[in-house]
Amino acid sequence: MAARLRLRQVARLLAAVVVTLVAGTIAFHETLRESWFQSFYRAVVTVTLNGLDSIPRNDGSRIVSLVLVVVGLTIIGYAGAVIVETIAGGVVTGALAERRRKRTIEQLRDHFIICGYGRVGRRVADEFRASDVPFVVLDFHEDAIAAAREDSALMVEGDATRDENLRKAGLERARGLVAASDSDADNLYVVLSARSARPDLTIVARGAGADAERKLVLAGADRVVLPYTTAGHVMANLVLKPQVTAFLDVVTTATGPDLQLAEIEVRETSSAPGRTIRELRIRHETGALVVALRKPDGSFDTTPEPDTPIEVGDVLIGVGSPDEITALEDLFAPREAVAG
């Protein structure tokens, strides 16, 4: 919008200059009977306020000179205003935008930090955006910065391996961090820095191979994703189990139109602890299906029986439509304590 306005102002300025010079050339030619080139030269000298080529010989040419001087002053004044507005406007607008961005990041709570906005980082951002999860991008590469601006993503321009940049991204208030750089070394530094500052932070890192996976886990990553290994598994399953793979792709993507998977941690403040799946009537009340329970010791109870009790610390894995998943989350939402 601002760029189009500037172009229109420049176009008006150029049009005014051309019209003035043409009119002045014709007027001098008619009043002084000079050659076209001499008349054009006189018009240029007069409009640009460089003085007069020579004192006009008659009143008509003097009037033309006075008019051109006034018009020249107007054009120069307008040109100066456009230039000042362009420079000052860009600086002021940029400064205000930067202040708003910093203020927004400072107000974030329980957000995620994406370190590295390459192909993997952008895909992570797409999933967060579809799930309405707040996040901040941290990167310093020009293509990543351009992509983040195009996506209107909150961004901190800087090297994610530096502690001060992680603090600018709100590390102390973040819910989790994704180390998605193409460099294993950078991801290792990021994980080390984040884990030392936030022992309770959920960290997922990208790695190129098994050796990188081992080091990232030692550095403090909760999970490590190996894109090439994962891609190989998916490609093999697409050949061997195409329908199963298609189903999993639908339920594990936030933008899936039909089904979604959700994980819900059972807390003391909910009404679920100590009750069974049958007693909670999960299927009847929400329409969602409980496909697994992850126990606090890390083991999974897949396809739990209706009489399976649900305890504090269990993580329930459910599948259903977006509305059914919302109802399931509401069923296990913390209940406010009633004052006795």
Provide an overview of this structure.
The longest helix has 49 residues. The strands form 2 sheets. The chain has a 6-stranded parallel β-sheet, sandwiched between helices. The chain has a 4-stranded antiparallel β-sheet with strand order 7-10-8-9. Strand 1, helix 4 and strand 2 form a beta-alpha-beta unit. It folds into 3 domains: 103 residues, Orthogonal Bundle (Helix Hairpins); 117 residues, NAD(P)-binding Rossmann-like Domain (Rossmann fold, 3-Layer(aba) Sandwich), CATH 3.40.50.720; 73 residues, Alpha-Beta Plaits, CATH 3.30.70. The two termini are 60 Å apart. By secondary structure, the chain is of the alpha/beta class. It is built from 13 helices and 10 strands. Helices cover 55% and strands 13% of the residues. The protein is elongated.
